[in-house]
Write a structure and sequence with these properties.
Elements (H helix, E strand, L loop, with lengths): L5 H24 L6 H4 L18 H18 L1 H14 L3 H24 L7
Family: Belongs to the complex I subunit 3 family.
Membrane topology: Multi-pass membrane protein
Catalytic activity: a quinone + NADH + 5 H(+)(in) = a quinol + NAD(+) + 4 H(+)(out)
């Protein structure tokens, strides 16, 4: 019964080996000569002048989340675009497929308008 899971176990071990072995080889074979300059904090060529744990404005995170959200929704259109030609050639469900994507795009545009009206995209 468990012999069906053996390929999964091998896949996990091979994946771990591909991730862990280069790290271990770099740690074992690479030079390790720390000095004061290498251990000092570094920020874009300047000495760090603020605390690394300073608070960020929530708008940075809001813009990032909105970008990921809309980017992923647009990425759903690529598979649809590749198979839509097949639906048109078959002629059976082309209007249903087209209508469902138009509803998807309408929801996307409505969400974008709501975010715009609420000021989530305004940068002051």
């Amino acid at each position: 019964m468990l012999e069906g899971y053996f390929p999964v176990l091998v896949f996990i071990f091979v994946g771990l080996a591909f991730g862990v072995v280069p790290i271990l080889l770099g740690r074992i074979l690479g030079p390790h000569r720390p000095d004061a300059a290498k251990l000092s904090p570094y920020e874009c060529g300047f000495e760090a002048f603020e605390d690394a744990r300073m608070k960020f404005d929530v708008r940075y995170y809001l813009i990032a989340i909105l970008f990921i959200l809309f980017d992923l929704e647009i990425a759903f259109l690529f598979p649809w675009a590749t198979v839509f030609h097949d639906f048109v050639a078959a002629g059976e469900q082309a209007w249903f497929v087209f209508g469902s994507v138009m509803v998807f795009l309408a929801v996307l545009v409505i969400g974008y308008i709501v975010e715009w009206k609420n000021g989530a995209l305004d940068w002051e």
